Amino acid sequence: MSSKKERCDEGNYEPISAWGYLGYEILFSIPIIGWIFLIFYALGADNQNVKNFARSYFCIWLIAIVVVIAYYAAIGMGVDLPLPEVHFQ
Question: Residue 11: which residues within 8 A CB-CB, separation 6 or more?
Answer without folding.
Answer: 46, 47
